[in-house]
Amino acid sequence: MNAAIKPLVTIYNVNSYLLINSFKDVTEELSLKRPNKRTNSMMFLLLHTIDARYFLLKELGEKIKNPFGKYVDWANTIDDIKKFPKLKKVLAEWKKTDIIFQTKLSRLSQKKIDADTTMEFPGGKKTLTMIAFLAEHEAYHVGQLAFVRKFLGLKAVTF
């Protein structure tokens, strides 16, 4: 594994572990509850986070399609979505995609890491910058999942 990518792989591993643990004892019904009308549900946060993983996989050259794109591709906010997929299905897909994602990251060449991306991210247009920014983006949403979980009356997320 490339030394530049190793700490980011660790962050993504922790993010994934915490994301899965955020849903311990969360029912389908609880996953759709919102703290108020101006905040997101755990399901919406999960769909958004997995969508970001699919985006990154595509940017890294993986030929993959988000199976939940029909729910989020056209939505600007949670209020645009009238029907959600089943929680167990999304979590199963997360686990499957996480394996593909971790493998892809661990096999990136220096040439790919140093390559320009199609978008500008805080810090620049390099692939490494994109990967780092999206690790932070993912960690932010994992934190939101933990917050909503506590709001719903469940125990804190554990390692």
Could you walk me through the main structural features you see in this protein, from its secondary elements to its overall organization?
The relative contact order is 0.21. The protein is 59% helix and 6% strand. The longest helix has 25 residues, at 127-151. The chain has 159 residues and is mainly alpha-helical. Strand 1 and strand 2 form a beta hairpin. The model has no long low-confidence stretch (mean pLDDT 94). It has one domain: dinb family like domain (Four Helix Bundle (Hemerythrin (Met), subunit A), Up-down Bundle), CATH 1.20.120. Strands 1-2 form a two-stranded antiparallel ribbon.
Name the beta content range: 5-15%
Low-confidence sequence ranges? none
Radius of gyration: 16 Å
Strand order of the largest sheet: 1-2
Shape: globular
Annotated CATH homologous superfamily = dinb family like domain
Descriptive tags:
Four Helix Bundle (Hemerythrin (Met), subunit A), mainly alpha, 159 residues, 2 strands, two-stranded antiparallel ribbon
Summarize the structure.
The protein is mostly helical and 159 residues long. The protein has helices at 6-22, 28-32, 42-59, 69-72, 87-106, 110-114, 127-151; strands at residues 116-121, 124-126. A hairpin with a 2-residue loop joins strand 1 (116-121) and strand 2.
Q: What's the structural blueprint in terms of helices and strands?
A:
Layout: H1 6-22, H2 28-32, H3 42-59, H4 69-72, H5 87-106, H6 110-114, E1 116-121, E2 124-126, H7 127-151
Antiparallel strand pairs: 1-2
